[in-house]
Amino acid sequence: MSPLAATRVYAALSIAQYQAVLATPDADGDHELPANGVGAGGRSALEARRGAVAGASARVLSFLFPAAAVALNERAQAEGEAGPGNVHPQFTRGLEIGEDAGDAMVEHLKTDRFTAPWTGTVPVGPGMWIANGPPAGATFGGVKPYLMTSGAQFRPAPPPAFNSPAFLADLAEIRFLSDFRTPAQAALAVYWNIPTGTFTPPGYWNLTAANYVEAFRLNERAATRAFALMGAAMMDAMIGCWDAKYYYWTLRPTQADGLITLTFGLPNHPSYPSGHSCVSSAAATVLKEIFPERRAELDAWVEEAGLSRMYAGIHYRFDITAGRDLGAAVARWVIANADRLE
């Protein structure tokens, strides 16, 4: 899947799981699992939450991947047999709750405008991005956000004017990095590319969140909340990012200076702002709120993700700065309005 399609999957799945868990009995309680791994409410509450996650997951994923629906539903049923003894009645009840939450998310997905066709034209002129075939994600900025008021809510200020001193300075920086790219910089560019056909950048941040959830022993409610807030922030940040890309239509560095070389193919969408920085900053801002102990390494990864796109020759520094600021602003909005996901 493309990174945009993957972001949609991660967000829908995680939000439905969180809402399913909240709807189960004894959804509150301590956020950290005790040593016995059960927690508040005992096994009944644990089984209800397990069932809720399974039911919501099967419903959402079956809608998004209909060819796998039978296998997904079998997997959800099999989850109930994973514990000791027969299927716990609270697992069965949780499964029903989760299916209801999944169905509600499916209704959102049916009307989120993700599949809206693009009927526009690519503008031409000095400083305008040059497409290589149909532009990628041209309507994504119009997808229905989870918590933003619209894709334009956090639209950044315009980038430096084409051929202005500020623009030429940032272009010269990319040319310098291209001319003197080190093996370490090239390797970093490739590492962070995470293109279509992989788990994509939002998948990287989901893995990071999963590692933190395990390390800090979060229970089902706290874990699903972490994924839901991060998923909503990443999705809304990407919507805002693509809104800006197709509002400003900024050309890529190689389209302004043909002597700049690339470490991989040029993405087929405008340059400003950087999608990597938008999604990484959004995810990291949420994770820093939940896991403040990991702030330093999260900030370092956001910085690294942004620099990698400059090393690759596909983004200016002003793309990175705008993307980082947009992602952080969206994440702060999501955190402030988290109760709307409940």
Name of the top-level CATH class of the largest domain:
Mainly Alpha
- Average of per-residue pLDDT values: 94
Number of strands: 0
> What's the helical proportion of residues?
55-70%
What's the domain count? 2
Backbone shape: elongated
* Helix/strand order, N-terminal first: HHHHHHHHHHHH
Largest sheet: none
Residues in β-strands, percent: under 5%
Which fold name fills CATH's third level, the topology of the largest domain? Vanadium-containing Chloroperoxidase, domain 2
Terminus-to-terminus distance = 28 Å
User: Structural class of the secondary structure composition?
Assistant: mainly alpha
The low-confidence runs, each spanning 5 or more residues with pLDDT under 50, are none
Query: What's the alpha carbon Rg, rounded to whole Å?
Result: 21 Å
CATH architecture of the largest domain: Orthogonal Bundle
User: What is the count of helical runs?
Assistant: 12
